[in-house]
Specification:
heterodimer; A: alpha/beta; Helix Hairpins; Rossmann fold; 6-stranded parallel sheet; 15% strand; flat; B: 127 residues; mainly alpha
């Protein structure tokens, strides 16, 4: 259960019991002592302090302020007691303050304090936020990208060291990090799973079992949340899909899917890879995957799948594996790791057209790429990049096809997180032929050259797009092109393309710009980062909409009412 | 036997007895009410409050609340005393004394409640 601030207060007071009792006792003893000490007033008459005066003297000596001897000069007896009371109260203060400081420095107390503060922050959240479980390479990419888009993120990671840097990092939105185990449903609830602003749960821990638990908890405890989960094994993937986890990404499956696209439909591959490779993904230059003899180094999960894929595509495959007699290895497997020229030559690198470095060691993969390129500069180089730490080296090695699990997973999730229309759009794309993808790529490339397109989705309804809804109700035809014009200058086109239109009777992929919008339509736009917001003016403002439609600017806004007084009266 | 419980019970009871001792006597007669007894009742009351800090139980919460009432009443009485004796020329007139003692009478009630609650809790434990 969550730590409440109230119980922290109690914890504080319980720890402070002894120091406080010591402090009160010291003050009481010192005060009473002063009233008992014989003194003389300014006329030399015997005089004693009252409790009030004694408490006054103790108050200023105890706090080491010291006003001198008031109201009359002290007698030696009073001075003696002053010394006693100074040492008594100062020591009591030191003890109390020391206890407070040690309590504040106590890591248990500090953690409880921090956790209570964070829970409070999550409860006070008033914007849609994402819950990211696991802060490895994938988690880091996701958190950076989501916060850069302005979404608050809550991170749950068991290993506290990993999230320590998050508190000092400068990210675009509030990022709250909890150092706790995401397996426990209570912890997820504390991190905001049941909060009504929690729009997505992303399970990207390193373990299938934990991701599975997170996906189940999220699905059961909050029906409206969208769950993205990573699954490495086929069984976990099937398991998660069985209970309707919204998006399950299996890095091996995704790697093979992309490789297959690269072989069969290169432009679909380029488009798909560009869209779903995360922020800053670049469009890969077109390069045909050659047919012929291939070498696969490392018969891992990926290596096995790649070998199967290549054989399905009608290529001959030679496998290099340190354990050629192992289960499932095809006949003719060459023993070795592939890092040495001798092994590669034995596998026929001179006559091969391509090589896939799929061992589980990144240094080996790099070494295979470089050695193979030396032996045969024409080779198509495909590789698997296991960890993210050697990313710079892989970039420098310039292979033709790279699969980096963290990036693949993060990219897959990031493009689908922006709207539920992205998934139908991408699956439509995957069904289409190469020519269609080439045309769409050309369209998108008119606006942007390097960074991947950003998606914006909208619904044509009276609530979300009041201006357009009024216009449609008034019988005015509003084509999609209206949305794509610049509200400041209608001849100019915004750098956006309508890529999917969802209606009750089905989806339309890449609807023409003159398609008329209907009430209840949902539309997906793709284009340059940040331009999606410009469309909002046309959705909400009658005058801007009329300007975009007709090119005329009017002063008053009730345009549709003037043309159709009846419908205006109804509204 | 729990030493913590002994100390706790001791201070709660002592706060009551000291308070009662101060309260005893004619309400407006300064000779019947010693200021040292008021001081002692206040100090013991404060210590009893601190000892009740951090009790999570419902009983602990009510005990703490009653203790805070005691402190508040006794501090008010002490302030009235200090103002009357040191800041005005009248000294301890019967009217001032009556208000000091009646404030301590309120504290006495709250102290009594503390002891009753403590007794109830103890009785509940032994059952």
């Amino acid at each position: 259960m969550g730590v409440k601030t109230e119980s922290l207060l109690f914890l504080f007071f319980r720890r402070m019991r002894v120091p406080l009792v010591v402090l009160i006792s010291a003050y009481a003893i010192a005060t009473v002592g002063f009233t008992l000490m014989p003194g003389v007033d300014d006329q030399g008459n015997p005089w004693r302090m009252s409790l009030f005066e004694a408490f006054y003297v103790v108050s200023y000596t105890g706090s080491t302020i010291g006003f001198g001897e008031v109201p009359y000069d002290f007698t030696p007896a009073q001075r003696m007691w002053t010394m006693v009371s100074i040492y008594l109260t100062v020591i009591a203060w030191l003890f109390s303050i020391g206890s407070i400081i040690s309590l504040m420095q106590d890591p248990v107390f500090g953690n409880a304090l921090r956790r209570a503060r964070q829970s409070r922050g999550v409860r006070a959240m008033n914007r849609p936020f994402y819950l990211v479980c696991g802060y490895g390479d994938t988690g880091r990419i996701l958190v950076r990208a989501l916060s850069a888009r302005g979404h608050p993120v809550v991170v749950v990671e068991k290993q506290r060291e990993k999230i320590e840097t998050l508190e000092v990092e400068d990210l675009g939105a509030t990022v709250t990090s909890f150092g706790m185990d995401a397996q426990t449903p209570d912890n997820l609830v504390e991190a905001g799973l049941r909060n009504r602003w929690c729009v997505g749960v992303i399970a990207v821990t390193g373990s299938d079992k934990i991701n599975l638990k997170i996906a189940i908890s999220a699905k059961l405890l909050n029906h409206s949340v969208v769950v993205h989960a990573r699954a490495d094994s086929t069984s976990a993937t099937a398991n998660m899909r069985s209970f309707d986890t919204d998006y399950v990404v299996n890095p091996v499956e995704e790697y093979i899917r992309r490789m297959e696209l690269a072989i069969t439909r290169p432009d679909v591959f380029r488009l798909y890879n560009w869209i779903s490779s995360g922020p800053g993904a670049r469009l890969v230059p077109p390069r045909e995957v050659p047919a012929g003899n291939w070498i696969v180094c490392g018969f891992s999960q990926v290596g096995r799948a790649v070998a199967e894929l290549l054989e399905q595509q009608g290529m001959t495959v030679t496998v290099i594996d340190p354990n050629p007699e192992g289960p499932g290895r095809p006949a003719g497997t060459v023993a070795g790791r592939g890092t040495q020229a001798k092994t590669l030559t034995e596998a026929g690198v001179e006559s091969a057209v391509g090589i896939v470095a799929a061992t589980s060691d990144d240094a080996d993969n790099l070494s295979i790429l470089i050695t193979a390129r030396d032996l045969n500069p024409e080779l198509f180089l495909a590789t698997l990049e296991n960890g993210y730490s050697t990313h710079a080296l892989f970039r420098a090695a310039e292979p033709d096809f790279v699969g980096q699990p963290s990036q693949v997973i993060a990219g897959y999730m990031l493009c689908r997180v922006s709207s539920s229309l992205v998934e139908p759009f991408l699956s439509e794309i995957l069904e289409r032929d190469n020519g269609f993808a080439r045309d769409l790529l050309a369209k998108l490339l008119r606006h942007q050259s390097d960074s991947s397109p950003e998606f914006t989705a909208g619904r044509i309804s009276a609530r979300r797009a009041p201006a357009i809804a009024r216009a449609i109700e008034a019988g005015v035809e509003v084509p999609i092109s209206t949305l794509l014009r610049d509200p400041g200058q209608r001849d100019r086109k915004l750098p956006l393309e309508a890529v999917l239109l969802r209606r009750d009777d089905g989806d339309i992929l890449c609807p023409g710009d003159d398609t008329a919008l209907e009430l209840g339509d949902r539309i997906l736009l793709a284009g340059c980062t940040g331009t999606g917001r410009g469309v909002r003016a046309a959705l909400e403002n009658d005058r801007i909409l009329e300007y975009l439609l007709t090119g005329e600017e009017r002063r008053s806004g009730w345009v549709w009412g003037q043309r159709h007084p009846d419908s205006a009266a109804d509204a | 036997m729990n030493m913590g419980k002994v100390v706790f019970g001791f201070f709660v009871l002592l706060a009551l007895t000291l308070n009662f001792g101060f309260f005893l006597g004619d309400i407006d007669n300064p000779d019947h009410h010693n200021v040292y007894e008021l001081f002692a009742a206040l100090v013991v009351g404060l210590i009893a409050t601190v000892l009740k800090f951090g009790e999570r139980s419902h009983m602990g919460a009510v005990l703490l609340a009653s203790s805070l009432v005691v402190d508040l009443q006794l501090i008010a009485a002490a302030i009235v005393w200090a103002v009357a004796v040191h800041m005005t020329d009248h000294g301890l007139t019967p009217m001032v004394m009556a208000s000091i003692v009646s404030l301590s009478g309120g504290a006495l009630l709250a102290n009594l409640l503390s002891v009753v609650l403590l007794t109830l809790e103890t009785a509940g434990l032994s059952r």
